[in-house]
Structures are given as structure tokens and as C-alpha cells.
Amino acid sequence: MNLPKLSDALLVLDQRVATLTFNRDDLRNALTGSALIDDICTVADWVNLCDEVSVLVMTGAGSAFSSGGNVKDMAERGGDFAGDVAEVATRYRRGIQRIPLALQAVEVPIIAAVNGAAIGAGFDLANMADIRIASTKAKFGETFLNLGIIPGDGGAWFMQRLIGYQQAFELTLSGRIVDAAEAKTLGIVLEVVEPEQLLARAQAMAARFAAQPPKALRLTKRLMKMAQRTELKDFLDLCAAFQGMCHNEPEHLEAVNRMLAAQKR
């Protein structure tokens, strides 16, 4: 099975767990001014087409998870930030806004192992995952207003669904930086671990998820997402259809037989 070719990130697949590492420490893994947008979207599409993947882990190489937008380009009105209103808007739609659409469509669980600073769009990127595990060195900041801009990558959509409108509003308008401990208190991250334990903990959780029957796992992720936007009656109808699919999959009988065998021991 061939892994996709990436420019600024590394990808490893082991025991049904794909680990994507942002590999531009020279830019603190900035999403603009690098090829990381393309790399992330490429991997998201690949995951959905690859039946050998059950979980995606995202992390950063070096000191940062992702510093978001390239501030040097902003200062020079260059790169993704050059041009008039229409030109900038088009670059956002064709550039960084591809990430939330791609990750929202990923069919398997996504775990963000936040190793360091997750700032601006980097914070929003972490919030696009299903679960976040943070190093004690991690820091989080919705810092767009500090630069006189808005969260243009969908961050305002994701964060209030994660921690509620009031807390998301305060973090967004203050632009303040929170450490890993406060991020856990706010509900941004599920766990905080020492830096040397981060990737191992994320991959251990991923391995537990990846041990589940793969087709039912993908359907369950889809249901969890759809429950956020579907009326109960419609949702239950969908559950019934998905359950019918599961009952007719070989992996269902295999799992049942494993459980029955374990009970006889």
C-alpha cells in the first residue's frame, strides 16, 4: 500500500494508525507559506480511500504544533495575504479553508497530539480533531484579533461547539494564551502528559480505537458527527439503517464469536 507523497510533513502507517507529523520547524509549522495545507488535505483524502487506516494522529515536529498563519507574510502583504479583498478571499477559500472541509469529512477518528504552541489557525487545526492530548509544554491561543484579523479558517465554528459559546467568545475576543492545564479545565484537551510521553499516549489511544471493527468504527464516527446536526427521528432512522449494515458485515460475527469465546475461558 503506497503512502501519498508529501512535501512538508511526514506520514507513517503502523497497525492501522496513520501518524501525520508537520515537519516545518523552521516556520514553527506555519500553515501558510508552506505546503502543509496541501499535505493535510492530501492525507485527509487518502485516509478516506484507504481501508487499512482506522485512526489518524496529527502532531508537530520541533517546538510547535502549528503557529498558524505566517506573520512575516502578513507584515509584507505577501503570499496568501497579498492583493485586494476579492483576491485575499479567493486565496482563503482555495487555501487554508480547504483544511476544515477536508478534516470534517475524515471518516476515522482524528487525535491531535499537541506538542507545543498551537496558535491562531494552529489552535483551530487542533480543534478540528476529535480528541486533543497535550504536552505540558503546549500553549493555545485564538490570537487573530491581536493582529487585527478574524478567525478566517473556521475556528469560531469549531471552538464554540467544543467548549460552548461563552468560553469560546472570551478566548477569541481576548486573544489570550492559555497553557495546557487551563486548556484541560476548559475542555479543549482531554489529557495533559509530559512531553516525552505525548506521542506514545496518543498512539496508545489510537491503537485502542484501531482495534475495533473497522467498518463499524467509520460508521460510528459518521453517526457522532451527524448527531450534532440531525433531528432525533431522522437520526434514529439513520442508526437503524447503519445497524442493518453492521449486522450483515463479517466483522460483526467475528467480534461476537471472540466475545463468546472469551466468556468460556
Secondary structural class: alpha/beta
Mean pLDDT over the full residue set: 96
> What is the tally of helical segments?
12
Please give the alpha-carbon distance between the first and last residues: 37 Å
Main β-sheet, spatial strand arrangement? 1-2-3-5-7-10
What features would you describe in this structure?
With 265 residues, the protein is of the alpha/beta class. It has 2 domains: 9-210, Alpha-Beta Complex (2-enoyl-CoA Hydratase, Chain A, domain 1); 214-264. It has helices at residues 36-49, 71-75, 85-94, 98-104, 121-127, 155-163, 165-174, 180-186, 198-210, 214-226, 232-247, 250-264, and strands at residues 9-14, 17-22, 55-60, 64-66, 110-114, 117-119, 131-135, 139-141, 177-179, 191-193. Strands 1-2-3-5-7-10 form a 6-stranded mixed β-sheet, with helices on both faces. Strands 4-6-8-9 form a 4-stranded mixed β-sheet. The longest helix is centred in the C-terminal third of the chain and has 16 residues, at 232-247. It is globular. The two termini are 37 Å apart.
Brief overview:
With 265 residues, this protein is of the alpha/beta class. It is 48% helix and 16% strand.
Tags for this model:
2-enoyl-CoA Hydratase, Chain A, domain 1, 48% helix, 6-stranded mixed β-sheet, alpha/beta, 10 strands, 2 domains
